[in-house]
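QA checklist item 7 of 12: single-chain prediction sanity check.
[x] sequence parsed
[x] length recorded as 466
[x] structure emitted
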Amino acid sequence: MRKVTWILAISLIVVLVFGLLSLSCGPTESPTTTQPTTTQPTTTQPTTTSPTPSGGEIKIGVVQSLTGMYAGFGTGGIWGIKAAVADINAAGGVDVGGTKMKITITEVDDQSDQNRGGPLAEGLVTQTKVNFLMSGEEPPTMKPAISTIADRYKIPFVSSCGPFEPWNGMRSESDTKWPYTWATGMFAIGTPAAPPDFRAGLPGFTVNDTWIDYLKQFGPQTNKKVAVFASADGDGVGWYSGLPPVLVELGYEPVGLDKKLGLIPLETTDFSSVVNEWKTNDCQIMWGNAPAPFFGALWRQARSLGFAPKIVSVGRAPLFYTDVNAWGGDLPNGIGVEVWWTPTLKEYQGIGGTTPQSLADRWTQETSQPVNPAIGPGYRMVQVLADAITRAGSIDPEKVQTALATTDLMTIAYRCKFDENHFNRTPIVFGQWQKTTATQKWVLEVIYSAHSFIPTTAQPIFPIPY
């Protein structure tokens, strides 16, 4: 029964996400980087040959959200990329057929606007003459335009793409199926890995099995009524479609699904009608997915109206300290979220002795902020690309493309091995924002893990104290 439910749910994700997208898309030492382009890239016709390196450099163009609602993703991702580049260059560079070549980075800011990614990526290829494209962890709707440019110019695009289902749904509906895109992560919402994938049958590789295992600890201490919500964008629609059928199978009652209660347009500022209906139905669990500013406004209003669920789990919004701290007061306390990278990862290595913990320490020393989980995936992307270049013995895009297909690499963020969809699954744990007496007020603690190599760091808060 569950398998059938998930097939239906995932099919719905593909249709809804692509439909929405089509409406809007037509360390210790700072790494050496090139300066970002200062003019808006122009669109030109694709050339028949790929750009060649200048001065023995490997030139990587990075399209990232450095401002706007996804800046938390982008600032962590670009920092992780630069940290890996710094480690590689400090060791002399990438071994390319016996010659060491250093990496340079050109970064451009898409301002959290999915329509800007394509022109920016094309400018990096045609004007800056980058050899490869890269983009760190962000919602999947930020990636298709860049993938299209990678296919047009036939150069590898190494990315971190968010949940598998919406990303692969858009990929499946594309004209080219994005053969030059390599998603080094992250996770699946509910689609398990299939044999012969080494992750097949293992727990903790989907958000749903991780959250449901956590829910089993405390769900029976609630009335099992769930306030399900999501922002009505591509990522949110996918999440809103995915979990409720599973909750129903487990004996929970998502309130108002028949009228899509809780699927809320991004421009909404008054959430009172939705919140009051949750209150009327005495929802004691809240679950959803939305950008950080959107959820901050919703949660602030919900609390002012006296809505006080015992468990709150939110995808996307509470991932980064800067975002949750901006909500103000004690609003972050007890909010749960999936966690896809943590410095407590055991036995995973970066470059030149860098470990997950030492990478996190570098981040904190430089930014005076708690760890940003996007730094690990950013670092991993550079590891994966550098490994493929070394195995190819060349920066020729087709040779590197072939090498990427056979990647099997232990990285700073777990083992990377692509499946037939060019997707790499990463382990998931469950985190919760809790108060700390340290300099920073909030810390994202790991409160549930199905993995022996990712320990928990704190006990869960239940119920949330108000």
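[x] summary fact logged: The two ends are 38 Å apart (CA to CA).
[ ] second reviewer sign-off
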